[in-house]
Amino acid sequence: MEDFLADCNTRMHKSIDATRNEFNTVRTGRASAALLDRITIDYYGTPTPLNNIATISAPEARLLSIQPYDGSQIKAIEKAIQESDLGLTPNNDGKLIRLPIPPLTEERRKELVKVVRRYAEEGKVAVRNIRRDVMKHLEDLVRNGEVGDDEERRAETQVQKLTDDNIKSIDEMLKHKEAEIMEV
Questions:
Q1: Is the full-model pTM beyond 0.85?
Q2: Cα separation, 116 vs 112, whole angstroms
Q3: Could you give the CA distance from residue 67 to residue 98 in angstroms, rounded to a whole number?
Q4: Residue 38's pLDDT is what?
Q5: What is the per-residue DSSP string for 119-170?
Q6: What's the rounded Cα separation, in Å, for the pair 100 and 152?
Q7: With b meaning 16 or more CB within 10 Å and e meaning fewer, what string describes 41-64?
Q8: Nearest Cα to 39, choosing from 27, 30, 12, 29?
């Protein structure tokens, strides 16, 4: 039983971490290197994450700078950023790409809140799927006679409590991220 609960807890925390990472890729009014985490570059025929082939820094609140390790990749990086859904225009000086982060309009803020809510819902669904999976395993254990009904009910109660706590955690992250996006 303890193994099931520990496994359930670990898997739910991984879902929360994945949701947090998704939240970090959503643009707010401030520059953050995490904005570029989803961008991949075709690096000599291999799709490679941008942060593996360049140094990304935020020298100012509204500016990201990207310094490629290989100067020949600067055009590919620039093209990948332009084709992404970030809506940002890179400035290339031959050695460094500057990525100014314009202030968000009210309309764009509302769109980003919808995106963040979708990510939060996906995270909640993942947590609920883990709960469903664990409950099914518990039923199988009871059916096979490996555990009694009382132990199953206790474990189900603990799994439900874990689920509720993790969904509450996602809701708190969502509330914080919405406030961050709507902040002018």
A1: no
A2: 6
A3: 9
A4: 83
A5: HHHHHHHHHHHHHHHHHHHHHHHHHTTSS-HHHHHHHHHHHHHHHHHHHHHH
A6: 56
A7: bebeeeebebeebbebebeeeeeb
A8: 27
Q: What is the pLDDT of residues 45-75, one digit of tens each?
A: 889 998 899 999 988 888 899 999 988 889 9
Rounded to whole angstroms, the Cα distance separating 16 from 10 reads 10
- Report the percentage of the chain scoring pLDDT > 70: 98
Give the 3-state secondary structure of residue 37.
coil
Which has the closest alpha carbon to 25: 109, 114, 115, 90?
A: 115
pLDDT > 80? residue 87: no
Q: Which two tokens stand for residue 144?
A: 């096979």
Residues 172 and 169: their CA atoms lie apart, in Å, by 5
